[in-house]
Amino acid sequence: MAGLIKNQLVKHLSKFTRNLKPEQISLDVLRGNSKLQFIEINEEVLTDILELPTWLRIKRAYCTGVTVNVPWTRLKSSPIQIFIDEINVDVELSSGPPAKRGENPFGNLGDSNSYGFIEKNLEINFDSDAFGGSFMLQRLSVESRSPGWAPVQDLKHARINCSVTNRTLMYKQLSWHLLRIEASAKSSKDEKRSKINAPLRLITSGGKIRIALKKSSVDGKVIHARIQTILEDILWVATLPQLRSAISFASYIMSLVQESQKEMIIVPTPSGFSNRSQVNNTPGVDASNSTFKAFHFDQTSYHLHVKKIDLHLCDDANASSCYPPNWNIESGAMQVTLFQVLIDAYPKALASSDRSTWMRYSTPNAFTNWMHSRLSEQYNEIMKETKDSTLRTRLERCWPQMMGFHVIVRMFDLTIQCVSDMNTKKDALKNLFVSERHLRSLPSDQHIVHFEFANYFHPMTDTLPVPKPAAYLQLGPFSLTFDERTLRWCLYVAHNLQSAIEDGKLKVPVDANVQAPDLRFDLLMPKIIIPLPNPVSDARLPHRLVASMSLLSVSSCSFEFNQKAHFRNLPHLCNNVKVQHGNEKFIQHLNNLNNATVPPSSEILFLRTSPVWIDTDHGNNTKGLPLIYDIPLVGGAILNADFISAFIEPSEEVTVMIDHFQFLQLTRLSAKLSSFFDLLAADQKHFTGGKPPSAPTVSFLAVLDKIRAHILLTMGPMPSPYDACPAVTDINNSFMDRLSVEP
Q1: Cα Rg for the chain, rounded, in angstroms?
Q2: What is the pLDDT of residues 382-392, one digit of tens each?
Q3: pLDDT of residue 112
Q4: Is the dihedral of CA 189, 190, 193, 197 positive or negative?
């Protein structure tokens, strides 16, 4: 009896394995236990089942042991459990022609079986001529869960059936204790993985993938899926050689993809059929089961949630020969900390949807309001430009069914430290970017970073016009500190990465038919802090220059500007501007900005702010002294590869109130910034080897119609620098008291 069952098992498993023999199977028929020792999996079948791209091939796959428990007396309520000791997969990256794929042995199998997969290890090794690496999951577990993701003892609690719609919701969870990813470049083709240099490593502790499936209870077809990847803390220490290796690896992968696409045989699409994603004609949610209604989802979506990402970007420890002259950062490093990162993707969402069914999404919000207004505006523009009545009728009928590909990136909090080096002490660490959510009492569901991208398409045709893609960023509240060492080090890192991109010939293919997206950036309550030169001679000299506002908006779509703004009459303005050498092109660009004739390959942006306040103070938690206050700004810019022209003007009269201490520090700041920009120019010359810089020329024009200046002097005789200086707090209080006295 046992021998007959073993032969039948070998017969069926031979489709998926290689060289499987009956003696490798131990069988206990009555208890429902079966053990298989060292199974070599057929890599061709595995490649076909996983539907891997042609440039990714499985060389070898095997597991050291498999144990199967079949509960013969409880098949309807208890799962069939599969215990796998260890899985090893060797993957090869190649640009050769794709291998012929046979019939999928799982093609006729339904997905009605349930299983348990308990705490085992999975390791995948990949290899190529230029790169090698591994992907390892420790203590991997796969099991059925309840709709609330709680463990279940009965499989009936892991699915929800609806007899009215003939739909079934199923829930699976895959979890692991440790995830390790390693990838590195080889110096020669024959080099083993143990010898590859500059390894790029990513290690996370704990994580899970939650999969919710909506299937047809008639034929078992998967209709929609909701996949959530949840990760715990991620610590990633990346050096410049590792980032260069990552760029080279990305360039190598893109070259393989391009080569594989050349080898692919393109099957012509039948007339009248579009290869775009089809809209599923699924029944509505009019289900009799209230539980089914509560957990129902109507589209496929993918979600990533990371609790915390701690990123350390480090300089080369032995790269002193690459540093520019007068370099004062030895083995620099920068730390970036991201809290509660959410990334959501909806490949096929109805463009006119109110998004009420999206996960962890509050609607309406600033982006949905702007997006719906832009869709309405573009619909009217397209209808006006369309002269063909038949096309207008088709567009009017298909526009409500238009779909969109949406990506949302959100961060609850964000902190970026200034660059530090080997000589930096712990108490000297400063923050370059820090959120102020704790000072502004933000709602718990509001994120510091909210970015969205939407790309639109008609699901059944490619011939109808579609709106422009839309990109929106909301950032803040935050404070940003201008730090010279950090800016200089970031430019050094950017040069290294740019060199790696050029060496690897990493270029993203650009489709000439793709429209430039509509852009909108909203900065909420930004605060820009510029440290003033160190006031060593007098404690009454201010330490910082602080600019703050409630809102700064930048958009590729024009705003409603104040009627007083010169922005509406740029030609007249430019005719009255004294044109100096090199400014002729700038004036031409400003005229183009007003006439809406943007040069080719250029992007036009508009800017407006709430009232701006500029103060000086003596550091954190000190009272600020006003310098410029309550001035809204408007402006615009034209950007292209060769030239960037920017224009800005205040909407109201500028009022300046300055004392001699502020004037002295601002004069010193002007000289300090001039020297710093000269230093950046010398760094750029060092990076390019004396070649002309490839960066675009930047011109800036600020129009001030009227300035009202108040110069404040100290009361009484001028103090001597040898006299004892009063406390900073006393200075601030007495000065503010004098300002508040009625004349």
Answers
A1: 32
A2: 898 888 888 88
A3: 38
A4: negative
Q: What is the H or E stretch that residue 491 is in?
A: helix 484-504
In single-letter form, the type of residue at position 146 comes to: S
In three-state secondary structure terms, 175 is strand
Q: What residue type is 3 in one-letter code? A: G
Residue 260 has pLDDT above 90, yes or no: no
**What's the pLDDT score for residue 629?**
84
Query: 631: which 2 tokens?
Result: 């001035």
Sign of the dihedral defined by the CA atoms of residues 685, 689, 690, 692, in that order:
negative
Look up residue 158 and give its DSSP letter.
G
Contact residues for 563 (Cβ-Cβ < 8 A; gap 6+):
none
Residues β-bridged to residue 83: 67
How far apart CA 181 and CA 236 sit, in angstroms, is 11
Residue 730 Cα distances to 539, 540, 607, 713, angstroms = 11, 10, 40, 17
The two structure tokens encoding residue 13: 């498993």
Q: CA 23 to CA 157: how far, in whole Å?
A: 38
Produce one character per residue of 689-701: b if its CB has 16 or more CB atoms within 10 Å, e if not: eeeeeeeeeebeb
In this prediction, residue 649 carries a pLDDT of 84
DSSP string, 327-367: ---SS-EEEEEEEEEEEEEEEEEETT---TTSTT--SS-HH
User: By three-state DSSP, how is residue 580 classified?
Assistant: coil
* d(C-alpha 177, C-alpha 165), whole Å: 38
Q: Give the containing element (helix H, strand E) for 413.
A: strand 403-417
Grade residue 278 by pLDDT with cuts at 50, 70 and 90: very low
Is pLDDT larger for residue 182 or for residue 742?
Answer: 182
Run of H or E including 67: strand 56-69
Q: How far is the C-alpha of 423 from the C-alpha of 405, rounded, in Å?
A: 48
| φ, ψ of residue 283 in degrees (nearest 5) | -65, 165
d(Cα 283, Cα 273) in Å, to the nearest integer?
A: 23
CA dist 454 and 467 (Å) reads 10
Mean pLDDT of the chain: 75
User: What is the pLDDT, as a whole number, of residue 366?
Assistant: 85
Whether the predicted pLDDT of 597 surpasses 60: no
Residue 389 has a CB neighbour count (10 Å cut-off) of 8
Those residues with Cβ within 8 angstroms of residue 101's Cβ, 6 or more apart along the chain or in another chain: 44, 47, 48
The pLDDT, as a whole number, for residue 472 is: 94
| Residue 478 scores a pLDDT above 90 | yes
Q: Which amino acid is at 598?
A: V
C-beta separation of 634 from 605 below 8 A: no
Q: Is the pLDDT of residue 457 over 50?
A: yes
